[in-house]
Amino acid sequence: MTTTTATATTGTTSSGVADPRLPATPDTISVYTDLNCSFAHVAVHRLHETRRKLGLEGRIWFDFRAFPLELFNREVNARPGVDSEISVLGALEPEAGWRLWQGPDWTYPVTTLPALEAVHAAKSQSLEASERLDRALRHAFWAEGRCISMRHVILEVAAATGAVEVDELANALDTGSARAAVTAQYESAREGRVNCSPHVFLHDGTDMANPGIEAHWVNGDFGQGFPVIDRDSPEVYEELLTHAARLL
Prior knowledge:
- This protein has helices at residues 38-53, 69-73, 79-90, 113-121, 127-142, 151-161, 166-175, 179-189, 236-246; strands spanning 7-8, 28-33, 61-66, 199-201, 206-209, 213-218, 226-232.
- The chain is an alpha+beta fold.
- The protein has one domain (25-246): 3-Layer(aba) Sandwich (Glutaredoxin).
- It is globular, with a radius of gyration of 17 Å.
């Protein structure tokens, strides 16, 4: 697993072009994740809960960016690997919502790309709509065992948020209006520019990969062995959010 030390970047590439990983405004935090990544499920839960605790709701927003593991790994994010992480990561944040997959294997999500696309498409309505859809899709997968690969499931989850205009989202999915943006987010993350899911970036270039958690795998890599948590420091989320608030 990656280091969790926060570092400051220049905010620009070597050619002087604005760094596409960074949020456009100081009141926004870019969060690169996949929806079926257990480490990201912990991180997103902690981001939301820490923001609420600090009274920063409505002042700091999360811009969720796609870090599609299936494209990086060129294969499905394997269920054995995901299952092996649930009891370990679930113990860190049980309130995030977790459950082992109860359905038949053929109902397990084979892709998260449509759901990632939906999260981005919802930004055209508002960041709040996108945030709430992202969190609801995570809960649908991790806690409810729903196949978030499927269009009708994505739209049902969106409707239940009460924050997403579902017809508008359906049109975005059917026309693929957000697809190019998701591909661009993937491209912005390639070649080590984003270390993993999750990886957060602040407007001033401060970034942190897999915030607060260091882990290693025992008895094989992902899909064969299981993770062991070497360090868990949830207090780094308060540090991140407090620093973001200073940029306002």
